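Morning!

This is the sequence you dropped in the shared folder:
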Amino acid sequence: MKLFGNIELIDLAIYADETLIFTDFHIGYEEALNKQGMLIPRFQFDEIIKRLESIFKKLKNKRIEKIIINGDLKHEFGTISEQEWRHTLRLLDYFGRHCKEIILVKGNHDTILGPIAKKRNVKVVEHYLIEPIKQSTIGSNPINNKKTIIKNTLKNKKISISQKSLISGNLENSKNFQSIKKSFKKININNKIEKILKNKKISIINKSNKKYSIIEKSNKKIINKNKILVLHGNSIPNKELLKGVSTIIIGHEHPAVSVREGPRAELFKAYLIGKWKGKNLIAQPSFNLVTEGTDMLKEEVLSPFLKQNLGNFDVVVVADKMYRFGKLGELE
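The structure's back. Tokens below.
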């Protein structure tokens, strides 16, 4: 399900800019309940893998560079249980087969996460910024296309070999034409060549005493300007971190809504989508499959991001498929 900008909801996962986001697995939850005397079978890990397989099938045609686990990978606060050791490592190994990098954002349950992360050489951070990706706008091999254009232009205009070698050599040595510092080389050229290069969308810079630096204009552009901040959501970050951010994705809350049909009500995991201080806010449902989560219609909210009037927040229920349920206030 497409949301605003570059964000897509896929079951309990969020996909944006070649990054896949999950939250709140709470691995080890059944063992913690067993220790409290509750006889619950330890089924969650197998169910998690089945659910993930379904998600990755839906993403088979999409590129996944990074996977972010947005807090509470494990459940126990002050220790790492036997179940947590086994299943967190297996989960990280599974994710490692589907992406190039795994990032663990610390949650309030992740007080002891370092030893697990170290076992698999995984980065642990307080938050993560997803910058807008740039995409090529001219062909599958824009660098070669641009060099060919320049060389043909110079040849057609009968520019001397010495001048041509200075220009083409500079272009050959530049790396993807992305850095001005690495791309420019001062050369003496006349106004005629300057005009040719401008017509071919080549920038002329540092023009002084008939010396010029040339650089190819960027053949990439930002397709979407949505800068995303991913953090667990149990505390508010400082203002500096929020600068330039347009969308915030949080976990922590485990949002769910009860849907009533006659005398019967059933609780479903759900996304809450609204605003926080003018920025888009997405509260992502948990991947803890033992429980649905917090009923946002009845229970007190946990995240400081959600301690506001939530009546205008949009609800997307996650069931056999994704359902838009309108405003939270309309469900009360």
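Headline: The longest strand covers residues 264-276.

More detail when I'm at my desk.
O.
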